[in-house]
Amino acid sequence: MTISKMPSKSTKKACRNCWCKPQTFREKYLVNSRRLCALVCWYLLILCSPLEAAEESPVNLAPNISAGKYLFQAAGGCGCHTDTKNSGAFLAGGRPIKTPFGTFYGTNITPDPETGIGNWSDEDFIRAMTQGLSPEAKHYFPVFPYTSFQRIKRNDLLALKAYLFSVPPVKQKNLPHDLILPFGGQYAMLFWKNFVWSPQPFISNSEQTASWNRGAYLAQAVAHCGECHTPRNLFGALKTKMHFAGSKEGPEGELAPNITPHKKTGIGGWSKVDISYFLQTGMKPDGDDAQGLMGEVIEFGYENLQEGDLDALAEYLLSLEPISNDLKPDTAENAETEEY
Amino acid sequence: MKQIKIVTVLSVLLSFCFFGSSSLADSKGIIKYRQNVMKATGGHMGAIVDILKNRLPLADHIVDHARSIQQNSKMTLAMFPKGSGLGDTKAKPVIWENWSKFESAVKAFVRESAKLAKVAESGDMEALAKQVRATGKTCGGCHRNFRKRD
């Protein structure tokens, strides 16, 4: 695989930018077979090149299971992989997740060698988490949020793997996803990964405090807040300009509220302690409790976080640019649609 | 002919409006009532939490808030009579289809809020913080399974 050498960052970026535009693509390349050939070569090169997130050099530290467990909880307890409603085994998959693109079934991530991830090497795990590729080089659908997880530090990923390998292995075959046609194939995923998704690494901000950076890392990478709270475009990619501004079409048809500090439509009325207490207990400032998936990720994950981390998350969220995005239909309209 | 058609269409549309609004109306006022009691319950809960998380020098208020929650908890089940699921409400019909499950979820709330009132009387703040969370969890017992999402 000499081809797997990574192209320099700048070339890759330039090419991607021009190929993204359909007109230029058709006019410039499709009519010209030599150029088309070049295009295919570049395409293969990009496919085989590792993404930048995993570039830290491997360190020979024995990853710590308890550190991994903590990260697992900071990720919200990975509840998509446990079919809690039907009393499914812990992390053995089978939970249906309804999305606008069809119904996905959570996979078995217990260390069972046959049906789970027990045969995965460290590199397999890191490839899955940062590039969305299975050990057999199949592309995962981005319902598995590798789009956020690719920002997790390598050492943290290895700790997470150590923890996952410490849970009881369960033999349970994965269910095939039930998707709406154009989204179903591997080619669709190839297209998506190369032309729709542009992975952005986590960049720390030296002008901000250490706790702000910790909160940003947790929110953007580990806790993967944006996967539900940032709206998606038609192709299922997150709208970066609407970072954390809420989405009407979250997983399982749930509304994911605007969590930018916008006074009227977001959480601008919440104090820092309101947010950290909410993440710890699921209780909102008005005494109501978190619903649906948020209730789950708190119960199985965030409530175990240390107060410093909860405060860091709150500090980060309150520092975001407030975006006005009203997701709730007004009450009159609501009354009309509620029962019919 | 044309006029008759228009009249028919209009009358059908009008009857929809009429029919729609009449069945939407909260004829017995029960929906609004239970929403008010629920808001009050949530308000007392939020008030206790405000005192705790901001360390307000109002700890002596907690007992009264906790007692109010306990009193409201005892009203909760009766606020969901059969047939009160139609209208501008987030209560799911499954409440009445699976009444025994709903009932036991409400009873868990009654039990935990009674404990909350006791712990509040004892003045042990650490135990109180724990019991607030335990009580808060029983809210989810109904809200997650029996309440429509926003």
Task: Describe what you observe in this structure.
The complex is a heterodimer of chains A (340) and B (150). Chain A folds into 3 domains: 2-49, no CATH class; 55-196, no CATH class; 210-332. With 340 residues, chain A is mainly α. The model of chain A is unreliable at 1-31, 44-61 and 331-340 (pLDDT under 50). Chain A is built from 14 helices and 3 strands. The termini of chain A are far apart. In chain A, α4 (65-74) packs across α7. The longest helix of chain A has 16 residues, at 33-48. In chain A, 36% of the residues are buried. By secondary structure, chain B is mainly α. Chain B has one domain: Up-down Bundle (Four Helix Bundle (Hemerythrin (Met), subunit A)), CATH 1.20.120. Chain B contains 6 helices and no strands. In chain B, α2 (30-53) runs antiparallel to α3 (62-76). Chain B is elongated. Chain B starts with a helix and ends with a helix. Residues 15-23 of chain B have low confidence and may be disordered. Chain A binds chain B through residues 254-255, 257, 273-274, 277, 281-292, 295, 299, 328, 331, 334-336, 338-340, and chain B through 20, 23-24, 41-47, 49-50, 53-54, 86-89, 132-133, 136-137, 139-140, 143-144, 147, 149-150.
- Beta-strand content estimate of chain B: under 5%
Order of helices and strands of chain A: HHHHEEHHHEHHHHHHH
The CATH architecture of chain B comes to: Up-down Bundle
Structure annotation, total helices of chain A: 14
Mean pLDDT of chain A: 82
**SSE string of chain B:** HHHHHH
The stretches of 5 or more residues of chain B where confidence is low (pLDDT under 50) are: 15-23
Global morphology of chain B: elongated
Number of helices of chain B: 6
Low-confidence stretches of chain A: 1-31, 44-61, 331-340
Helical content of chain B (DSSP H or I, runs of 4+): over 70%
Q: What share of residues are in beta strands of chain A?
A: under 5%
CATH superfamily membership of chain B, which one?
Cytochrome c/b562
Read across the widest sheet of chain A, the strand sequence of neighbours is 1-2-3
Counted up, domains of chain B total 1
Shape of chain A: globular
Domain count of chain A: the total is: 3
Main beta-sheet strand count, sense and barrel state of chain B: none
Biggest interface in this structure?
A: A-B, 28 and 29 residues
Task: Count the beta strands of chain A.
Answer: 3
What structural class do helix, strand and pairing data of chain B support? mainly alpha
